[in-house]
């Protein structure tokens, strides 16, 4: 009792000492990055940073910060956000010592104490895992890659043609946002598991993967916004957040369903010798059953929603710009007429779509105006700190600082894209005469898929899907917005867009 009484008597002294220590630490933390300006209070507390994620509009918060405070803005006591292409290229370079920031990347963990290629913090393990998985994303080990994509392009075209075509007698609006999701999920499940989930065939979210994805992503944005990612993910609390295999919704339900598919595959073909898909390739390159589960979940999330968002945004900007619409459709019709694209029901080949300069200008510009993913992908400055050049100025970054990528701001940067950077103009990709500036523009586009040692392995597949889908949608139908006053409803959770009610009307064209 004597000790307790002594502590009680000294309670105000103890409290004052603890407060003084806390204030001293806060002051020290503030002064480390005092040269970087940012929103009020961001240098002292995480409140602004957290509210950005909770707002479900973080990409715009970050853009407004860099617009106001420059190419490097302070958004938290230890967080910076940047639109500097020089700095981002440097950070993601293959030989640099920057590492992933744990509090951000751990959000990609779907099982307690088990990382995937996104959430893995050990750089050596990450590099090895990329090498093991690369073959599964290529046509060399996934022989039916292009034909699988073509199959689902045709399924979507036929779904629209048989169920959703508008005529002079009847308008039949439908949600292209949802159909793009069905398409992207069928493609990634087909090339991943050897057979599609069948969303397009049944015209519904068959296994509730898309519902689970949205629920899980929303939950992740709250975990990030409240600063709980490190404290929760990787602990038993994950089960309370719906990340258990037994959960009925969210990432846990996705994990449970995926585990069943992989278990069945291994029972039927223990050495995966019969398969020619991602699973069989990954298994042959050393991934065990649990690693197959975690990597499959991640590729479903990374491959489906981002591709669907790209298709939506490209179509939205094409539909709202008649000049662009007419020129693109003319290019499509020209290659059909001259035989470069085989008549329907053949789907345009990769070789042909690569030659369509205006098609790709439209795609790049649509993804620039509305990037498919906007997570900040924070990297940590090496312990010894780093000195970098940004817009001709030498800047020192203290060791341990977290530096994030302002995706929306970089893609609207007037220094790179010109005074009309806020407007959709595909021709900028075709008429730019300065080779250095064009190379810089293309580098910004590359960064939408990650960069350097962190570049997305699924990039070639995503671009194949996007190019084929936009071509065939324009070849087979005439389009208009069903609700031009509000084309869609959209929120951004953890850098991924949740889009609903993108209502459009499609009218049959005579197919050449």
The top level CATH class name of the largest domain: Mainly Alpha
> What is the count of helical runs?
23
CATH superfamily annotation of the largest domain: Cytochrome P450
Strand neighbour order, sheet with most strands: 1-2-9-6-3
Strand content: 5-15%
Shape: globular
The CATH architecture term of the largest domain is Orthogonal Bundle
Query: Helical proportion?
Result: 40-55%
Q: What's the number of structural domains? A: 2
Which structural category do the helix and sheet elements fall into? alpha+beta
The value of Rg in angstroms is 25 Å
Count of β-strands: 13
Explained architecture:
It is a single-pass membrane protein. It is found in: Membrane. This protein has 512 residues and is of the alpha+beta class. It has two domains: 32 residues; 476 residues, Cytochrome p450 (Orthogonal Bundle). Helix content is 53%, strand content 10%. It is built from 23 helices and 13 strands. The chain has a five-stranded mixed β-sheet with strand order 1-2-9-6-3. A hairpin with a 2-residue loop joins strand 11 and strand 12. Helix 8 packs antiparallel against helix 9, helix 11 crosses helix 13 and helix 15 packs across helix 18.
